[in-house]
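The record is passed on directly below:
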Amino acid sequence: MSGGLAFQTTTNAGQTSYLPLLEPLVAVPLGEKFFFESRAAILEDFFPSNGKYDHSHFAGFTYAQVAFLASPRLTLVAGDYLLPFNVYNERLSPVWISNLQDSPLMSSIGLMSSASGLGGMARGKAVQTSKYSIDYAAFFSARSGNQQFGATRAAGGRVSLYVPAHRLEAGLSYDRSLQGPQPQHENFYGAHVWWEPKDMGLRFRSEFARGHHAQGYWIEADYRTWAFGGLNSWVGRIEPVFRMQQTFRRDNIVSDGVPLVNTQRADFGLNYNLPHNVRILTSYSRQFSSSGDHNIWETSIVYRYLFPAWKEKSK
């Protein structure tokens, strides 16, 4: 049993909202070859409305999947899984991992309507040597209107190259929506670059995505110093973060989940990593667009918990 518990506040253009959030995750081995994993989200959103505060709530599964280890280079996944388009959706979306409270403005491009697919996926390492490795993921998703497991009929995948000596990863993604009449089928293209220099405490992450209606990119860097007693010293726990992002409209027919006008945004974060998996995240953002410029202030406290669901049987 694992997951994250967070309390988040956001002041956007002078309006403050509050969001308590619970993201539980369960990972269950089923013998030596099968593995079940699922994550859910439970939240209550309190926001200003007509001079007072209103609220809404949500509870649902983020994904629920079963994986089968077919061979050292192939894992088969079935169920409701996170779409392998770029890498933010799979790696950085959990509340206890992300460095900034908000996901990038363009992160919804290529993720269809629900960021998950319902069907099957094959993934693994196509090539692995001492100098580099090539990972792949390919999926097919069926259409589903189910409230808990909604999905769009689509197919696609991702291929990534990793160079361990330089801790450098680069990849390309492609999705195609197969829902509706043929002229409405859309293609989505993505690319990502991650770089984590060894023994520097610096991480560099970036993504680009292009769809039929919009495109955009984000670049993020965060740093923790080893110079004053390591990462667990009071100085090493300080983590400055910077993200630059832009979105561009190709038309105004469908939003693709991104702003309806060309938008630029700079995010400046200062996080503190407390002991016992507790993090305090603070950030200031300035957003620029033709619909108006405004400031965004955000603060959250996040606790990541992890414990076994039951004791291992003695041998």
In short: The chain has one domain: 71-299. The domain at 71-299 is CATH 2.40.160.10 (Porin). The chain has one helix and 16 strands.
